[in-house]
Design goal:
Blueprint lengths: L1 H21 L3 H24 L10 H21 L4 H10 L27 H24 L9 E6 L2 H9 L1 H7 L5 E4 L9 E6 L1 H4 L7 H10 L2 H9 L2 E6 L2 E6 L3 E6 L4 E6 L2 E6 L4 H22 L8 E7 L2 H9 L1 H8 L1 E7 L12 E7 L2 E9 L3
Parallel strand pairs: 1-2, 9-10
Antiparallel strand pairs: 1-8, 3-6, 4-5, 7-8, 9-12, 11-12
Length: 381
């Protein structure tokens, strides 16, 4: 899905680019290109295919990701060339020509890219607009509770604004589980549900007092017994009626206010596609998964500092400052070895000092309150 989406976005960008260039609106054309490379390619597509480029070298999913990125960059550079001729020439000669035969010796000898209509899929682009909204709003909900994106959450739920949005979100579920770093994702159309929010009614004394002076105490008591959802729906239609001590009372918009409250395990954010709820419940398994993601990220930094090839294997030791982190890491030991390309992995706690001399590169890290010392040796071949 992400490959089809990026190719469609690329063709839409090329089409918009030509529309601006034909009108001599060069600044608009340049802005379209910059937004595509920074937002669509860098912020959306690359994170979605990150795991695919770590697959075995001949895996079709990995090859397809590289094909899509190459085609995208080649098309983009040709459109960018009128704006940044030296940069475009550099990338064309030093990168694009290395991986394709028969390319002209200069980017200036290539054709300007034209729109390939058969690659355009407007429905796919609309679907990925939903993904980007979910990414932004779930991130905002996480920030409210101080939960980092690298730490997995139990569930993300979208209360969609309409059926079409809900359908698009459902089609993205497989991607969203990884992209939002959640164990489960669900899209619903129901507005207020007991498991998400509790809706309470608050009387507006300034509006009700002058009309129901002697009845205010009984009216307020009755409001607390009313079904808040039904009362709100009735007011949305114009007015609501209820019985107070056998007397009929009419309510209009402004007479009452509605307040939503969330249970402790949920965080919430609004978006253009609906309400997004994130279950931030912490379990031992989720804590373990979050820890190994933090550790993996730091090992990957060390691999980069050693300028190791993607497929190159290593021997590694992880020395934690507390025993609990060792136990959590053991729950995902196989994951750690796979993600870091480790042949041997030694997990040590504060009660044991590893043999550091056998490791060629050693570095200390701090992950919140945890101190982590990593030893690494690259395996030749």
């Amino acid at each position: 899905m992400e490959d089809k989406w990026l190719l469609s976005r690329l063709e839409s960008v090329v089409k918009e680019y030509h529309e601006h260039m034909d009108k001599y609106l060069w600044h608009q054309a340049g802005r379209v290109l910059l937004e595509f490379i920074s937002e669509d390619l860098s912020r959306v597509y690359l994170p979605l295919v990150k795991k695919r480029v770590w697959l075995d070298s001949e895996d079709p999913k990995k090859v397809m990701a590289y094909d899509v990125m190459y085609y995208t960059l080649q098309t983009f550079i040709r459109a960018l060339n009128p704006f940044t001729p030296f940069l475009s020439e550099k990338i064309h000669k030093d990168f694009l020509m290395r991986f394709a035969e028969g390319l002209p010796e200069s980017v200036n000898l290539t054709d300007m890219p034209m729109t390939v209509e058969k690659l355009m899929d407007k429905e796919m682009e609309a679907t990925f607009d939903v993904l980007q909204e979910l990414r932004t709003s779930s991130s905002h909900a996480r920030n409210k509770r101080g939960v980092k994106l690298r730490h997995p959450v139990a569930k993300v739920t979208l209360i969609a604004v309409d059926k079409e949005t809900s359908k698009r979100a459902d089609s993205l579920k497989e991607l969203l589980l990884d992209d939002l770093n959640t164990r489960d994702f669900e899209s619903l159309l129901t507005d207020v549900m007991a498991e998400f929010t509790k809706l309470s009614v608050k009387p507006n004394y300034k509006a009700l007092g002058p009309r129901y002076k002697d009845m205010m105490k009984d009216l307020v008591a009755q409001l607390q017994k009313e079904d808040a959802i039904k009362l709100r729906d009735a007011l949305d239609q114009g007015k609501a009626t209820m019985q107070v001590k056998g007397k009929k009372v009419e309510l209009v918009e402004g007479d009452v206010e509605f307040e939503e409250s969330l249970p402790e395990h949920l965080s919430y954010a609004d978006s253009n596609i609906g309400k997004v709820y994130v279950d931030v419940t912490r379990t031992k398994e989720l804590e373990a998964e979050g820890l190994v993601r933090d550790v993996t990220r730091r090992v990957q930094v060390m691999r980069k500092e050693l300028d190791l090839k993607v497929e190159q294997s290593i021997d590694i030791v992880l020395h934690f400052s507390d025993q609990e982190s060792v136990e959590l890491a053991k729950m995902y030991e196989d994951y750690l070895k796979t993600e870091t390309r480790a042949v041997t992995l030694d997990l040590a706690g504060p009660d044991r000092e590893p043999g550091w001399k056998k490791y060629s590169y050693i570095k200390e890290w701090e992950i919140d309150d945890l101190k982590l010392k990593v030893g690494m040796t690259a395996i030749d071949g």
